[in-house]
Amino acid sequence: MAFAMHNHALALFSTLVLVMISFEIACGSHHHHHHHLKSLHFSLYQHETINKTGYIIVNGIKGGAGVTQTTTPFGTFFVFQDILTATANRSSKVVGSSEGTSITSSFDGLQSISIAKLTLRLKHHKGSVQVVGGTNNIKPSDYPVVGGTGDFLFVQGYVTSSPVDLKGITVTYKVEFHLYWPPYASQAF
């Protein structure tokens, strides 16, 4: 009986060692692919004009922050469809659009939860990148990429939005793209 249990334990141990070796080989080859990720890094500029390209759909609670170029009351539901240009100048070449929604999530009116679809018409890439995340209206905000279409199918990475000009009727944000394609998506690039 003891001998049979010893053989069973030895067989189980041998199987475990083989599984661990197989796992190490699989992980080793997986890391090899990371050195061949295709990537794309560039910046565009988003221009938003209250009551022209961005609208408050539901007013937030009274008593907190008011409506300004950088704040909306807590709970405010805001939608936008803004142009994306090649430079910070609003009259520069339009290369895409940013459409989405945000809900003010802080009582000071400076932060919100945002969802956006960034449609791009670049020289060598056309399609859209979808992002979601927290926005700080007066500081840079990073958004993880959660999907893409067209040339951006299977894309991963993040987008950073930073205020450039918050004065006047139209506010401008610099939108920096840090995009990566996994090895299995090479045909999509």
TrEMBL record:
InterPro entries: Allene_oxi_cyc_Dirigent, Dirigent
Record-level GO cellular component terms: apoplast
Chief location of this protein within or outside the cell: secreted
Claim: Secreted is one of the keywords in the record: yes
Keywords, alphabetical: Apoplast, Secreted, Signal
Biological processes per GO annotation: phenylpropanoid biosynthetic process
Keyword match Cell inner membrane: no
Subcellular location per the Swiss-Prot or TrEMBL entry: Secreted, Extracellular space, Apoplast
Family: Belongs to the plant dirigent protein family.
Quaternary structure and interacting proteins, as annotated: Homodimer.
Function statement: Dirigent proteins impart stereoselectivity on the phenoxy radical-coupling reaction, yielding optically active lignans from two molecules of coniferyl alcohol in the biosynthesis of lignans, flavonolignans, and alkaloids and thus plays a central role in plant secondary metabolism.
Name of the molecule in the record: Dirigent protein
